[in-house]
Design goal:
Radius of gyration: 37 Å
Distance between the termini: 46 Å
Shape: elongated
Number of domains: 2
Number of helices: 14
Number of strands: 21
Mean pLDDT: 84
Strand order of the largest sheet: 5-4-9-2-1-12-15-14
Low-confidence stretches: 18-25
Structural class: alpha+beta
Helix content: 40-55%
Length: about 600
C-alpha cells in the first residue's frame, strides 16, 4: 500500500510537470502540403521539383533535406526557390541562402530563413540520375516520392509524373506502393497523377511504372526483359492490398460497434465510479470535532521532537528538513556538536577561506542519553558516525556528499522508523487511513480497467477514466486526523504562520536562550526558509546573545558576522541533505525497393 501511495504521488507530480511545461511543447512544425512534379527526360534524367509547405509554431531558421549517397542513383543541380525567388548558394547561413554538405553517406541541403508562427512554401529542385532502367521490352521507373526517413507526417500530398514524350492513353502501366489510401490515375498522354491525404511518419510512398523503350532513346539498354516480372509482382501486391482493405473494412466495422457500446456505457460507468467514491468517503471519513479557532500560538505548543513536528505539519510527508532538524536538536541536547572548520585557502583574491560544516559526536553524552533517544535518532547517529565516518570523531558535509549513494539507501529506512515513531502519537485516525488505502487501491484498479477499456471501446470511456483519476486524488483527502492530532496540527501550523510573519526587530525584550534555540530548530523542521533565519539571526546578532546557540561553533574569522554565517551553515546543510536524499488505382502496401529520395526536417 505504501508503494501505491508513492505511485499516486508520482502520478500527480508527473501530471503537474506536464501542465507546467506544456508551453515547452509549443515549438513544432508540420508538413502541411506537398506537391512533387517529376519530368522524365529522354536521356533518363529525372527533373524533380518538390513544393513543400511547412507550418511553423514557434521560431525556426532552417529547413534541411537529405539525399543518400550510393551507387544506385545520384542527385545533382540543386536549386531552392520561395515565391519564385531563388535562394543564393553560399555558406553564410543568412536568410535567403542555402548550401550543401556531405555527412557520411548522406548529402544534406540546408536552407536558411527566418520564420515565427507562420506558413512557408519552399521549392526544392534537383536532378536524379540512375532511377530509370531500360530493358529489351520496357523501361522501368522505380522511385520513392517520399522516403521513410521523414520523421514527421506529411499531409495533402499530390504528385505528377510527366513522360519525356506523349504516350498512348493506357500508358504507362503503373503502381503506387506504401499506402492503401493512395490513389493514382492516368491524365492522358502518359501523365500519372497521384493523390494521398496523409502519410504517417517513417512511411514511404513510391511509384513503379513501365514505359515503352522508345520513350528513352538516350538510356543504354540492359540485357533481359522486365515487364513479366513486374506484372507478376504487382499482381501479387494488388491481391494482398485488396485482402488488407477487406480486413481493414471489417476491423473498422468492429471498431464502430465497440465504440457504440462504449458510448452507451460511459455515463453509467462514470456515475458508478462517483457513487463508489462517495460511499467510501462517507464510510471512512470521520472529522474530529475541534472548534475552528484562528488563535495564534506565540509560544511553542506541547513539545515534540522536531522531526515529528515536520511529519505532522507536512501531512505525513518526510522532507530533508526533518533530518536536519533532528541533527540540530541532538546538538542542542549536547549529543553532537556542529562545527565550522577550515578546509583550504581562498580560491582567489578577495575570497573567503574555504570551510566545511562538521558534525562531531560527543561520546559521553551519547552514552548517557542513549536510552532516551528515539529509534530514528539512534539510527541516524549510528549511520553517520559508525557507518559513514567509520568510528571517526566527526563527519563533514563534503564527506556526506561524496557518500550520497549510501545516504539515499539509508534515507527510506530512516523515514520508515520516523513514521513508526509518529504512529505512536495517534495523530491520525486508523479507520480513515484504511479508507484512504481502500480508495487508492480501488481507484487505481478502475483507472487500469478504464485505460484498457478506452483502447477497446473508444474515447467515451475517458469519462469514467477521468472520474477514476479524481477518485484517486480524492482518496488522499479521506485520511483524517484524530482530535488529538487535529489540535496539535493547528497549534504547530498556527505557530508556523506566526513565525513567518514575526519581524523580530521590535521585540520589547531580547528572547531567552531556550526560545531562540527552539524557534531555530522548529523553524528548520517546519521549513520556514531563509527569510525567517535572517530575521531571527539578525535579532540574536543585535542583542549580542550569539552564545545562546552554544552547540554551533564557528570558524574564528567569521565570528563578527554571526547572522550571515549562521544562514550559510544552515543553507549548506540543507543543500547537501536535499541532494543526498533525493519515455492504376488504389495504392498497395509492399514495394519498398524504389530509389530512396532521402528525408529532412526543420530546425
Amino acid at each position: 500500500m505504501i508503494k501505491l501511495i508513492s505511485l499516486t504521488r508520482a502520478l500527480l507530480v508527473a501530471l503537474l510537470i506536464v501542465l507546467l511545461h506544456a508551453g515547452t511543447l509549443a515549438r513544432s512544425f508540420e508538413m502541411s502540403r506537398l506537391h512533387v512534379n517529376i519530368n522524365l527526360q529522354e536521356d533518363g534524367v529525372m527533373q524533380v521539383e518538390e513544393q513543400r509547405e511547412f507550418t511553423f509554431r514557434g521560431t525556426f531558421s532552417e529547413v534541411y533535406r537529405t539525399f543518400p549517397i550510393n551507387e544506385i542513383a545520384t542527385y545533382k543541380n540543386f536549386r531552392i526557390l520561395e515565391d519564385g525567388e531563388p535562394y543564393l548558394n553560399n555558406t553564410s547561413k543568412q536568410p535567403g541562402t542555402f548550401f550543401i554538405e556531405e555527412k557520411g553517406n548522406t548529402k544534406e541541403v540546408r536552407i536558411f530563413f527566418d520564420a515565427t508562427n507562420t506558413t512557408r512554401t519552399f521549392t526544392i529542385g534537383f536532378d536524379v540520375m540512375g532511377a530509370i532502367q531500360k530493358y529489351e521490352d520496357a523501361a522501368l521507373v522505380y522511385y520513392q516520392i517520399i522516403s521513410d526517413e521523414w520523421s514527421q507526417p506529411i499531409h495533402n500530398i499530390t504528385a505528377t509524373i510527366n513522360p519525356p514524350v506523349a504516350l498512348e492513353d493506357d500508358e504507362p502501366a503503373h503502381w503506387v506502393h506504401g499506402s492503401l489510401d493512395a490513389v493514382s490515375q492516368l491524365k492522358g498522354q502518359g501523365v500519372v497523377a497521384i493523390e494521398l491525404e496523409s502519410l504517417p511518419a517513417h512511411r514511404y510512398l513510391e511509384i513503379r511504372a513501365l514505359y515503352p523503350t522508345g520513350a528513352f532513346p538516350g538510356v543504354p539498354p540492359l540485357m533481359g526483359q522486365i515487364a513479366e516480372e513486374v506484372f507478376a509482382e504487382a499482381s501479387r501486391l494488388v491481391e494482398e492490398a485488396n485482402e488488407m482493405r477487406r480486413k481493414a473494412l471489417e476491423k473498422e466495422q468492429r471498431r464502430k460497434e465497440r465504440y457504440a457500446i462504449g458510448r452507451s456505457l460511459a455515463l453509467p460507468l462514470t456515475m458508478i465510479v462517483l457513487g463508489i467514491w462517495i460511499f467510501i468517503y462517507r464510510r471512512f471519513t470521520t472529522k474530529p470535532n475541534v472548534e475552528n479557532r484562528e488563535e495564534v500560538y506565540k509560544q511553542l505548543p506541547e513539545k515534540e521532537k522536531p522531526a515529528l513536528v515536520s511529519y505532522l505539519v507536512f501531512q505525513r510527508q518526510i522532507i530533508p528538513n526533518a533530518m536536519i532538524a533532528t541533527l540540530f536538536h541532538l546538538a542542542y541536547r549536547k549529543v553532537i556538536t556542529v562545527k565550522e572548520e577550515p578546509i583550504g585557502p581562498p580560491r582567489g583574491p578577495g575570497k573567503k577561506e574555504r570551510t566545511d560544516v562538521v558534525f562531531q559526536l560527543n561520546h559521553e553524552e551519547f552514552r548517557l542519553q542513549k536510552d532516551s533517544l528515539a529509534e530514528f535518532e539512534q539510527m541516524l547517529l549510528n549511520f553517520l558516525f559508525f557507518e559513514l565516518a567509520g568510528g571517526q570523531m566527526g563527519i563533514g558535509l563534503k564527506t556526506l556528499y561524496r557518500k550520497k549513494d549510501k545516504m539515499r539507501i539509508f534515507y527510506p529506512k530512516w523515514s520508515k522508523a520516523l513514521k513508526e515513531e509518529a504512529d505512536k502519537k495517534q495523530w491520525y485516525n486508523k479507520e480513515s487511513e484504511k479508507g484512504r488505502n481502500t480508495g487508492l487501491l480501488v481507484s487505481f484498479i478502475l483507472m487500469v480497467i478504464f485505460a484498457i477499456g478506452t483502447a477497446i471501446y473508444g474515447p467515451y470511456i475517458l469519462f469514467p477514466l477521468f472520474m477514476s483519476l479524481f477518485f484517486l486524488i480524492g482518496s488522499l483527502f479521506i485520511l483524517q486526523r484524530t482530535e488529538k492530532g487535529e489540535i496539535a496540527f493547528r497549534q504547530w501550523k498556527n505557530l508556523r504562520k506566526h513565525l513567518k510573519k514575526r519581524p523580530f526587530t521590535n521585540e520589547e525584550k531580547p528572547l531567552d536562550s531556550s526560545t531562540i534555540n527552539e524557534f531555530l530548530i522548529y523553524g528548520v523542521a517546519m521549513a520556514l526558509g531563509r527569510k525567517f533565519y535572517r530575521k531571527l539571526f539578525a535579532h540574536v546578532d543585535q542583542t549580542g546573545n550569539q552564545g545562546y546557540i552554544f552547540w554551533m561553533l564557528f570558524h574564528g574569522s567569521h565570528r563578527h558576522d554571526f547572522a550571515r554565517t549562521m544562514e550559510r551553515v544552515i543553507s549548506s546543510t540543507s543543500t547537501t541533505m536535499s541532494s543526498t536524499t533525493g519515455t492504376g488505382g488504389g495504392g498497395t502496401m509492399g514495394g519498398g525497393g524504389g530509389v530512396s529520395s532521402g528525408g529532412g526536417g526543420a530546425r
